[in-house]
C-alpha cells in the first residue's frame, strides 16, 4: 500500500515541519467547490468522500483513505485554480495541510515526494476513470451494490447505517429508484435490511 | 527521433530523452490499450491525435480526444500499483507516442522545471476533462451530449461540415443508431444542423 506511513521517516518529518495539522469529525466539509486552497492535505488518519461539486449534482466520485492514499490533492499545485469537487470527512480524521509552495521546494530534493505526488495524480485520474466506467456501463443494481461494498470496505463493517437520501445523492438517482433497487438486492439475497441498517450478506 | 528535436525542452533534456525514451509510431485507425502498452513507463502523445475510450467487453465509452500540439500523457499507470481501468485509444491521425521510464520521469521533473510543468499540467487537464465527462454523463440529455460532441468534432476538423456516420456517433456515445437518428432529426428541426448523406453540417458552434 502506498500511503503516508509508507514514506521514509526523513520525508515524513519534513512534511510535519511544514504542515498545519487539522482534525475533522464525521460529516465535516474539508473543501467545497469554487474555493481556493493552495495546499495539499496529507492523510494522517481517516476516510474522505469526494463528490462532484454541483448544486444539483453531488455524484460520488471516489473515496480517499489513510490506507490507500498519501494525500488529498486538488490538482492545482502550480496553478491556484478553484477547486472543482467537494470533500467530506467520513470519520474522525487528521490531515496535515502543507502549502503547495513548500511541496514544490521539497520535491526538488526528494524523489520520494515527487513520486508520491505523481502517484497521487495518477490515482485521482484512475478513480475518475473507474467512476465513468461504473456510470456508463453498470446497471443501477450493480452500481448500488458496488457502492455498498465499497462503503463496507472503508467502514470495515458489513453492517451499514445509511439512509436512502444519501444513496440517492451519491448515485445521482431518485429516491424511488434507490428504493426499487434495494428491494431487488434484497430479493436476490445480496443484502438484508434491519431497521435503519443494510447488511451485506456476502461479507458474512 | 527527429520529432524529439521539436520538443519544447532544453537540448540537454532532449538528448536524455533520445537516450532513454522509446518512440512508437501508430497509423490512423490503429487501436491499443494505453495502460498495457506502458507498463513501467510513462507515455506521452507528441504528435498526431488519439480518441480515448474506456472499453469493457463489447462496450466502448468515448471520453475525449487529445492532440499532439501540446504534449499529453496517455496513461495513468501508477508508479507502484496496477489499476483496473484501461485507457483505450483509437488513432485519429498518424501519431507518435514517446515512452519514458518512470524513474527517469521523476528524475527529470526534479531537474527540468519546464518538463515538470508540462507533466503536471497534463495530469490536471485530464482530471478536469474527466470531471466534465462525468458531469455530462450525469446531467446532460442525449441531445446536449450529441450537440457538444459534434461541436468538438467541428473544432477538430476545423470546419462546420463533419464527415461522420450515425454508426460512428452511436458507437462513441454508446447509444443505438436509432436513438442517434432521432436526436439528430430533433436538432435539425431546431435549425442547429443539417443531415447530409455522409456528413453533418452544423450551422454554428
Essential attributes:
heterodimer; A: about 200 residues; alpha+beta; 4-stranded antiparallel sheet; 11 strands; about 40% helix; about 25% strand; B: about 200 residues; Jelly Rolls; Arc Repressor Mutant, subunit A; 2 domains; 6-stranded antiparallel sheet; 3-stranded antiparallel sheet; 8 helices; 9 strands; about 45% helix
Write the layout of secondary structure elements.
The complex is a heterodimer of chains A (204) and B (205).
Chain A: H1 9-18, E1 20-24, E2 29-31, E3 39-45, E4 47-52, E5 60-65, E6 71-72, E7 85-89, E8 93-99, H2 100-109, H3 111-137, H4 140-155, E9 159-161, H5 164-171, H6 175-187, E10 191-194, E11 197-200
Antiparallel strand pairs in A: 1-8, 2-7, 3-6, 3-8, 4-5, 4-7, 9-11, 10-11
Helix pairs in contact in A: 2-3, 4-6, 5-6
Chain B: H1 2-5, H2 11-20, E1 22-26, E2 31-33, H3 34-37, E3 41-56, E4 59-67, E5 72-73, E6 87-101, H4 102-111, H5 113-139, H6 142-157, E7 161-162, H7 166-173, H8 177-189, E8 193-195, E9 200-202
Antiparallel strand pairs in B: 1-6, 2-6, 3-4, 3-5, 3-6, 7-9, 8-9
Helix pairs in contact in B: 4-5, 6-8, 7-8
Describe the structure.
The complex is a heterodimer of chains A (204) and B (205). With 204 residues, chain A is α+β, with helices and mostly antiparallel strands. Helices cover 41% and strands 25% of the residues of chain A. Chain A has six helices and eleven strands. A four-stranded antiparallel beta sheet of chain A has the order 1-8-3-6. In chain A, strands 2-7-4-5 form a four-stranded antiparallel beta sheet. Chain A has a three-stranded antiparallel beta sheet with strand order 9-11-10. In chain A, strand 4 (47-52) and strand 5 (60-65) form a beta hairpin. The longest helix of chain A has 27 residues, at 111-137. The radius of gyration of chain A is 18 Å and the shape is elongated. By secondary structure, chain B is of the alpha+beta class. Chain B has two domains: 2-138, Jelly Rolls (Sandwich); 141-202, Winged helix-like DNA-binding domain superfamily/Winged helix DNA-binding domain (Arc Repressor Mutant, subunit A, Orthogonal Bundle), CATH 1.10.10.10. Helix content of chain B is 45%, strand content 28%. Chain B has helices at residues 2-5, 11-20, 34-37, 102-111, 113-139, 142-157, 166-173, 177-189, and strands spanning 22-26, 31-33, 41-56, 59-67, 72-73, 87-101, 161-162, 193-195, 200-202. In chain B, the strands form two sheets. In chain B, strands 1, 2, 3, 4, 5 and 6 form a six-stranded antiparallel beta sheet that branches. A three-stranded antiparallel beta sheet of chain B has the order 7-9-8. In chain B, strand 3 and strand 4 (59-67) form a beta hairpin. The longest helix of chain B has 27 residues, at 113-139. Chain B is elongated. Chain B starts with a helix and ends with a strand. The mean pLDDT of chain B is 86. The interface between A and B is large, with 39 and 38 residues.
Amino acid at each position: 500500500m502506498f500511503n503516508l506511513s509508507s514514506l521514509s521517516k526523513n520525508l515524513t518529518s519534513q512534511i510535519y515541519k511544514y504542515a498545519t495539522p487539522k482534525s475533522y469529525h464525521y460529516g465535516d466539509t474539508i473543501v467545497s467547490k469554487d474555493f481556493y486552497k493552495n495546499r495539499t492535505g496529507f492523510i494522517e488518519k481517516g476516510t474522505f468522500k469526494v463528490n462532484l461539486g454541483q448544486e444539483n449534482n453531488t455524484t460520488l466520485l471516489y473515496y480517499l483513505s489513510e490506507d490507500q492514499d498519501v494525500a488529498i490533492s486538488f490538482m492545482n499545485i502550480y496553478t491556484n485554480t478553484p477547486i472543482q469537487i467537494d470533500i467530506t470527512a467520513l470519520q474522525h480524521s487528521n490531515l496535515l495541510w502543507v502549502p503547495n509552495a513548500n511541496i514544490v521546494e521539497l520535491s526538488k530534493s526528494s524523489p520520494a515526494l515527487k513520486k508520491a505526488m505523481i502517484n497521487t495524480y495518477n490515482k485521482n485520474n484512475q478513480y475518475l476513470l473507474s467512476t465513468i466506467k461504473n456510470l456508463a456501463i453498470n446497471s443501477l443494481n450493480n452500481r448500488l451494490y458496488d457502492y455498498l461494498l465499497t462503503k463496507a470496505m472503508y467502514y470495515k463493517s458489513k453492517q451499514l447505517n445509511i439512509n436512502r437520501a444519501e444513496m440517492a445523492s451519491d448515485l445521482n438517482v431518485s429516491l424511488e429508484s434507490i428504493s426499487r433497487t434495494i428491494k431487488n438486492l434484497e430479493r436476490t439475497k445480496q443484502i438484508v435490511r434491519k431497521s435503519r441498517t443494510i447488511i451485506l450478506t456476502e461479507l458474512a | 527521433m527527429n520529432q524529439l528535436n521539436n520538443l519544447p525542452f532544453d537540448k540537454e533534456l532532449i538528448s536524455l530523452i533520445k537516450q532513454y525514451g522509446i518512440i512508437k509510431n501508430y497509423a490512423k485507425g490503429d487501436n491499443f490499450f494505453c495502460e498495457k502498452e506502458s507498463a513501467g513507463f510513462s507515455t506521452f502523445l507528441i504528435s498526431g491525435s488519439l480518441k480515448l475510450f474506456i472499453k469493457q467487453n463489447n462496450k466502448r465509452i468515448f471520453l475525449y480526444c487529445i492532440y499532439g500540439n501540446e504534449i499529453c500523457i496517455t496513461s495513468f499507470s501508477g508508479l507502484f500499483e496496477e489499476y483496473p481501468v484501461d485507457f483505450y485509444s483509437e488513432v485519429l491521425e498518424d501519431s507518435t507516442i514517446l515512452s519514458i521510464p518512470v524513474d527517469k520521469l521523476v528524475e527529470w521533473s526534479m531537474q527540468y522545471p519546464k518538463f515538470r510543468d508540462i507533466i503536471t499540467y497534463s495530469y490536471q487537464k485530464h482530471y478536469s476533462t474527466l470531471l466534465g465527462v462525468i458531469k455530462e454523463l450525469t446531467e446532460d440529455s442525449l441531445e446536449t451530449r450529441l450537440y457538444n460532441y459534434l461541436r468538438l468534432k467541428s473544432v477538430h476538423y476545423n470546419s462546420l461540415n463533419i464527415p461522420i456516420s450515425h454508426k460512428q456517433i452511436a458507437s462513441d456515445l454508446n447509444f443505438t443508431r436509432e436513438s442517434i437518428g432521432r436526436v439528430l432529426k430533433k436538432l435539425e428541426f431546431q435549425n442547429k444542423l443539417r443531415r447530409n448523406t455522409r456528413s453533418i453540417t452544423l450551422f454554428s458552434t
